[in-house]
Specification:
This protein is an all-alpha fold. It is globular and about 40 Å long. The relative contact order is 0.16.
Length: 137
């Protein structure tokens, strides 16, 4: 019963997925979401909490853990996140609070990055394939 419910939830999220609709984000078509560098660029250029949430919403269901964290952020949290991100990009040590770890690297990205490397496919294709496998369970 639990697997069936999880499968239904994932199917519903996939049907609601905005990735396949016009967007200003590089993963407008998830199959063109080639590299993690596109996600890094998105994080670096998100100028507000609203932009961060909008971009992560576009990635649903692939970055729902990151979306949940972003939706729970305050304005101060967003400022802390962006400042810590700046330090991280400059190589000035790990100043990122642990509560924002899933924004830096959403859970579903980890196996997808490995699969994309191994299969030499775009990251988006690997994300879709992993979701398809999850739905088959």
């Amino acid at each position: 019963m639990n697997n069936s419910k999880n499968r239904e939830d994932l199917l519903e999220k996939l049907n609601e997925c905005k990735i396949f609709r016009p967007s200003r984000y590089p993963w407008r078509d998830i199959h063109n979401f080639d590299e993690m560098s596109q996600y890094v660029y998105f994080l670096d250029t998100a100028g507000s909490q609203e932009e961060l949430i909008e971009g992560l919403t576009e990635l649903s269901p692939f970055a729902d853990d990151a979306l949940a964290v972003a939706q729970g952020m305050t304005n101060l949290d967003f400022a802390i996140f962006k400042l810590a991100l700046l330090f991280e990009r400059r190589g000035e040590g790990n100043k990122m609070p642990k509560q924002f770890a899933s924004i830096l690297l959403p859970d579903r990205f980890v196996p997808a990055i490995l699969l994309a490397e191994k299969a030499r496919t775009p990251l988006g294709t690997a994300l879709v394939r992993i979701l398809e496998v999850e739905l088959e369970i």
